[in-house]
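Repro:
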Amino acid sequence: MKKRVYLVDDEMLALQELSVLLKPYEELEIIGMSDRVDQAIKDCNELKPDLIFLDINMPGMDGFAFLENLEEVNQVIFVTAYDQFAIKAFEINALDYLLKPLNPKRLAEAISRFYLKFQSEKEDLESQRLTPEKKIFIKDGERCHFVPVSKIFLLESEGNYVRVFFDKETALLHKSLTYLEQKLPTDLFFRANRQYMFNLDFVDRIEPYFNSTLLIVLKSGHKIDLSQRQSVKFRDLTGV
């Protein structure tokens, strides 16, 4: 599967040059680029790329402030004409720091580093992933629940918490939906959009929705609309 890449730079020429340099890397897919920071924030929060190539010195907002405005950040490679920000870049765990004009050899090293880190994190996540038989401990106020993963039918993001629906009860868990997405079995749970994730075993029916998207109706009666990107992914997964 190709890794999804987004490019951010206030100079369109720099974006075009970088996209040309990335063309030989068939394992990477450029899903978007922007020379406007506000648009790039919107795109990245929606598309959630695996890797962002990011300039630092941009009008209105620098690269570090840009990252603070993202809902989640995967991997970042800074591409800049200034070397004085390198220490700060690595303090926030940037994958690499490339200076303009770009050296193709250094770019290749950075992409290689990305793949090594991606594979390492993937193996770590898979080794920690829960199975349907496992139970999640949820302390909700004074009540405690040990909930089998297989009995959870819906998860709803509520700020820094996730509301977990199981049997005929709900409870708040102090985790993010993204964290749980990385922990729960991928063959059982599907991320619908930014707010919801659901258990495939509890799907009652699937209905067509707006703009070629899908509406999922659970056995509980809950209705969940899939984003356009997730509708495509759901169709590929289920063949509907």
